[in-house]
Fold this sequence. Notes:
Structural class: alpha+beta
Order of helices and strands: EEHHEEEEEEH
Radius of gyration: 21 Å
Distance between the termini: 25 Å
Strand order of the largest sheet: 1-2-3-4-5
Strand content: 25-35%
Number of strands: 8
CATH class of the largest domain: Mainly Beta
CATH architecture of the largest domain: Roll
Low-confidence stretches: none
Helix content: 25-40%
CATH topology of the largest domain: PH-domain like
Largest sheet: 5 strands, antiparallel
Amino acid sequence: MKVIENTAEQLVLSQTPWVLGILMSVVSLGAIGTVLVLLYHRQWLLGAFIAGVSVLVLPIAVLLVVQRTQIVVTPETVSIQSQNLARIFKTDVATQTIKHASVERFRQEGDVITTFRPILVTADGDVPLRKGFQSGNGAQDIADIINTWLDAHRGG
Length: 156
């Protein structure tokens, strides 16, 4: 997630998964190429199977996985907007109800890697800033940026 704007009036963070979108496009083109090669070699059944799976699975995966997220923090509200090709999801949280930003950790039993996502800790409960969990320091960096902005606005 990148800082787009950091002023006294607002903090804007944005994440656009270009690499994931491009990767899924390449996989789609690869599937089309595979189907064409199979059909050229008269492998009708296998070609039809791969075409069917590609037509059903790849668009759904793109719709569900490739998602742009934007967070706008102002003195009054924090607006969290996630958008995929099908829908826009928007959540607004009153800034005065936010205690601080933190990190939620997730690790399934048997997993070696712990993943994280940034959250807002509010009087009404935790509000995730993005749907998915990721490894690395990105979630903590986002929480730190938001906490710094909120502290500066609140005067300490």
